[in-house]
Here is the input.
Amino acid sequence: MVVVSFRLYNTLSGLVEPFVPLHPGRVGMYTCGPTVHDRAHIGNLRTYLAEDLLRRQLEAHGLRVTQVMNITDVDDKIITKAAAARLSLAEFTQPYLDAFLRDLALLGVEAAAFHPRATEYIPQMITLIQRLIDGGHAYMSDGSVYFRISSFPDYGRLSHLDTKGLVAGASGRIDADEYEPKEAVRDFVLWKKGQQGDLAAWPSPFGWGRPGWHVECSAMSMDKLGETFDIHCGGVDNKFPHHENEIAQSEAATGKVFVTYWFHPEHLVVAGGKMAKSLGNFVTLSALLERGHDPLAVRYLLLTGAHYRHRLQFQEEWLSAAEKDVERLANFWRRCEQGLALGPAKESAGDPLAAAAQRAQGLFEAALDDDLNLPDGIAVIFDLLRDGNRLLDLGQAGRVGCEAALQALRAVDSRLGVIERLAAVEDHLTEAESALLESRAQARRDHDFARSDQLRDQLLALGIQVEDTKDGSRWHRV
Ligand code: AMP
Ligand code: ZN
Here is the structure.
């Protein structure tokens, strides 16, 4: 057993647990992906970002993560919209899938190893349904196939619902509203009856039809990651019934534990309500970019605005503050890089910036190891930034300190994913330019402002504008 110090909240147990992978050194992670009938909104994207943070945290612990994110490219809404547009499912869904993957890339979400599409896994779904019928866990009725919840006593374990009374009480009843010929009201559909020639219908031993949503994820995840794997993710609304049903069908079919850790990030909300396509209160990433926002600021706000298990209220104005925060982090990164290039102002092991950076890095890791507490981790890094800038202003930090600060920032950024991308936009200084900058910094420390102004003009003549901010001096090319 490999023990990592990372602790993660597991919906199944309702506890923050030490994370123990099923196989030493590697993790199988399944992410319920988008239903591609519309543009993703930033609520959806918050969930994918929380999952990206989880993946990066596992990788920071040296674990090799195989992430699978499915694409739901067949469901009622897709069929209705594709039919209205007189397009095939593939023609209709492809532009939304492309846009979704573009959004993820813009936000710096690490790419999944596999993006299985539901329509390409119909044979695996049929096999799974057949296993359930053979085992007495599913039954055919009027051309459809349903899962028999009463055959799976553990039903409700994930969402901690007491479904026993419900299932028993409803047993034998037919839900008159839906005209679904089910044995019990909670039984859910595995295969929906259809007809040859329908926009979305496949032949099967149960007749023409199409799979239900829940069975898609069970079939695709087990095909790619095995019958038992480590982590299954999705927004909180996926917990019930989607994930509860996935557990029931998978475990009933295999007799094995399906997933050991269940990860459910909370919702992005607007004015008290969940951001949802159906409510029309949603914002897309492209709309934010059109209004001039930086995708890295969007990433930053959605990741650090609240702990992933808390709801996050979205207000567009907060993006400006996020932009400033990200810029301050990138400036500190550049300043430390410049500090390295400038050579030692102080070259001692007792560099106070080195001590502060090591301490901050330790606290950051402890926060992340405690169920991904990025908001607390970031607060520690802003303390470092404030102290570090002060030490650099005073000329009390040297090369050793800058190196340690950069090491801490790199560690932070392996999870946060914004600082280096922004800092890298700026190019590097030549040695002569660096020397001029350092002379100016020294002049400022000596309160020789006439000389510092003269050096500023000299740098400007070389095309380098220097600005003095509360975070210290910064330069950029003009
Ligand atoms: P969908 O494309 O509707 O299947 O949703 C894709 C993912 O986004 C699922 O994991 C949902 O749980 C998640 N999701 C939907 N709405 C929100 C929201 N307002 N905030 C965060 N996640 C959401
Ligand atoms: Zn799913």
